[in-house]
Every structure is written in structure tokens, then in C-alpha cells.
């Protein structure tokens, strides 16, 4: 297929989309009639507004049906094929696009494997998935997503992963539409291990989590922006047979620059959803109070799509945010300082704060709104809220990482979150040993003998000092976990003296004189 010819066809298609979308707009927005007479260089903006993100002053959003867009695109390719039979690959691609859901993209179809997926693939190629350790690693990866712990952002934890077992941990957290999530993991000096970070969105309608971002040791940091109020889960998993320590941070940041110069979210005096006109409508934005004449500035890069005056918003400016695929609404301006079609950058002045429109009886302020295609108006506060402050360093001593501890009282609740009133995943008894894998604030993240992990208050446990010394009557194997299927770590000859650190289901956690720790089966 000739690239130049296909590019020409796509250019024709853009014009065809414009012709299709402008009449569609006129059926819904009479005020667009004058726009059709403007120069052709702005047609793409109109097509974008009408077909994808068309938001008017009412806050309602119209969308050109995806089928019409795809049909138009397919028609152009078919016409081109009549002249260039070598366009068959393009036809197949168009059919593939038609079969895909609206949320799918070319990137999703041909997406590169993540570092975690590539590592798992190599495990299977080496047939390590047929070994106990390989199966445990793959199982731990899946369990971390479906049996995750719950955290509240901002979050910071110092963690540890042992070399003698496959491990992974999942952290579930709530996000708001428009928040940017910053995930970073720093390995402690001397830690030579590859660690995989993967963030997923949990969609109620889909059993498989949707991948959002990923990284490994080459760059243990990423950011992504949430496009809905949802539950996300972060999986942290090291490669096999490596031990190490790390510091994990998960913070929230704004995805937009603040729209009033010299102000921040402290200046917001009225929030989303507040009743208006005696309850007849709801506030679809936030009000940012500032002195009259304070610059209202571009919160994102993009194009000005509308500058007009309405009874409700007074002097208003609409900005198409081309990076995030949304429209930003500036209302009650005293002056408008931009023109439709003008390209702007973050920080450019769009107008001056005032109280025009239905705000004549209030103090000067900017009404700021965010409109997303398919969603209409959304709460803009998470988009501009200040970034989280760095959480305080853990109160619990990091020296406890990798240590075995036991409950101080007869029974101990193990929580799903590092909070006293959070749900519990179970209880443990005083003789049961717990392995400390993380410290956050004054909580410890521990692993139970069953393999599950949870949080316990640091003050409720103490170091697992030896309960007693025993000499083995017969030779016995030392296992990695208190399970029949667990692999043997070592063989102990008869008369070996060991220190018993804890007990669980008939198994005993023991430590040899050389410091090695493992489980003895009940028959030993």
C-alpha cells in the first residue's frame, strides 16, 4: 500500500468528518451556525467539539455515534481500494477497529508486554512454571490483585521481600476522576533485585483488572490520571530468589494547573453539587474567590473554542484541553482576553475574574468547570487540588523488617488496612509467628503462616523470642512454610538442637544455630 495515498485518503476523511459533524451540531446547538462560515483551518476543532466533546453552556454533552465515524472512515478506505488494491491491509485494520469496543485503541490492540508479563513469559518458556517456586510466583501475582490490602492516599511504606519465597503484595485505593496518581519505589542501598510495579483499575463489569501503568527496576516511578471515580490496585512483586528492602510512596497530584493566578484550592468557596436556585439545580463546578481583575489562566494546553456571554455565566471562555480530551469552562469573567481558535499554553491569561452573569450580587470569583465527552460536567476539585504532602516516616522501627514477631495478647486481630476500625482478615493466637514485611506509620504489615498478609498495630506484637530449645530425636526436613506441599529448605540430622520461635497447626517454626529459620512438620 502506498503511504502517500493513504495519508491523502485520511486527509479527505478529516474533511468528510467535518461535513458530517457540523450539520449534526446544528441540530443540537444553533449557536454553531455562524462557526461554519469561519475559515477552514478551524474545522478540526468544530468536528472535535461536535462529534467527540461537544459541551454547551447547559453542561449537556452530545456525541456523534461511533458507528457513524467508523462507517465514514471505512467508506473512504473502500473508495481508495478501488484504485489501489494494495490497500487490503487497511481494510482489515478498519474492520478490526469496527469490531473493537469504544474504549479500545490501536495502542490497546498492539500493546507491548509489560515487564511483569515478559518476566512471566520467560518463566513459562524455561518451564519454571512447572516447579513449586515458579507456580508460587505466578499464584502470588494473581492473589495480590484479588486479595489486596486497602490503603488511603497518601501512603508510604518501608517494605521487605525475602529471597526464600515467592511474594507479591497488592494495595487497593480509591481515586477521584481527574486525580493524577504518582507511584514511586526506591530500593535500599545494596538491594540487587528487579521489582515490578503494575497499577490496575478494578471495573465491576469486568472480572479481569484493567492495566493502567507499569514499571520495573529500570524506572521505578510512574504517573497516570484517573478518568473516573474508581478503585485501583497497585501490585508490587520482586523477581524470584532475591531479597531486599524498599520505600514505596503513592501520592495524589492535580492533573490541571490551578486556573486563578496566585491562588490554590484554599480559595475555593463553593463546591460541586451545592444546591442552586432553591434546589432547582446543582452547582456543576467550583467557585474560586479572588479580587476583581485577578487573571484567570489556562489550566491546560489547548485551543479556545468559544468566547461569549450568557445570562447564567456572564462573560465566559471555553478551552479545549487537547491533552486530556475535555473542555474547561471559565465563567463570571470581568473581561475576556482571548479569541475563538486561539492556541494557549498553561498559565496564559484568558480573562479577568469578575462577577458577571447571575453572580452580580456576589463577590468576584471564577466559576470553573470541567466537561468530559460522554460524561458532561464532572467535579473539577480533584483536578486542581494541591498535591499530597509527603507522609510522615513510619513510627515503627524499620529494623523490624524481616523479623518474626508474636502477639502480646492471647488473640490478635489482623486488619486489611492500617487503621483500627478497618475490616479484619482474621485473628491469630499468641504462639503464632508473623513475618514483618512492611512498616507504615505505627502499623506493621505481616505475613501469616497461611501466606495471607495484613496489618497489625506495632504495639500489639513483640519479637519472637525462643519459646524453648529442643533436640530432634530423628532426622527431619526444614520447610519453607507450614504446608504439606512446601519445598524442603534443609535437612536436619538427629540430635540437632533448634530454638522454637512459634507454632501453627502442629508445625513448629524453628531456628538453627546457623540462623536459618524454617518449619518442622508435626511428625518431627
Automatic annotation (TrEMBL):
It comes from the Bacteria. SUPFAM superfamilies: Duplicated hybrid motif (SSF51261). Transmembrane segments: none annotated. Residues 282-380 form the M23ase beta-sheet core domain. GO terms for molecular function: metalloendopeptidase activity. The keyword Hydrolase applies. Keywords: Hydrolase. PANTHER family: PEPTIDASE M23 DOMAIN-CONTAINING PROTEIN, PEPTIDASE-RELATED. This is Murein DD-endopeptidase MepM and murein hydrolase activator NlpD, contain LysM domain.
